[in-house]
Amino acid sequence: MNSSEIECKSCGGKSFVKATDYINLRPMNKKMTMGSEKIYTVCLNCGEVVSIKILNPKQLQRD
Ligand SMILES: [Zn+2]
After folding, report:
1. Would the pTM count as exceeding 0.70?
2. Closest CA to 50 of 60, 63, 40
3. What are the residues facing 49 on neighbouring strands?
């Protein structure tokens, strides 16, 4: 799985690690919703977060 050739905007590095803080993101108007965890893609060289992704985006629109 080397298809995504991403490059750090800050240092040009190409080594990344995916991480999560295990805190769910919830829709602002639905506080009771489970929400979904965020996945951070972090540059191993300088620590820049190059991407934040929601693991299950559909969880954010559930009633
Ligand atoms: Zn970097």
Report:
1. yes
2. 40
3. 42
Could you give the 3-state DSSP secondary structure of residue 42? strand
Taking alpha carbons only, the member of 6, 11, 18 closest to residue 45 is 11
pLDDT tens per residue, range 6-55: 899 999 999 999 999 999 999 988 778 889 999 999 999 999 999 999 99
Domains of the chain, residue spans = 1-57
Q: What is the DSSP letter of 61?
A: G
The alpha carbon of 58 and the centre of ligand 1 are apart by a number of angstroms equal to 30
Q: Which helix (H) or strand (E) holds 28?
A: none
42 C-alpha vs ligand 1 centroid, how far in Å?
A: 8
> What is residue 49's three-state secondary structure?
strand
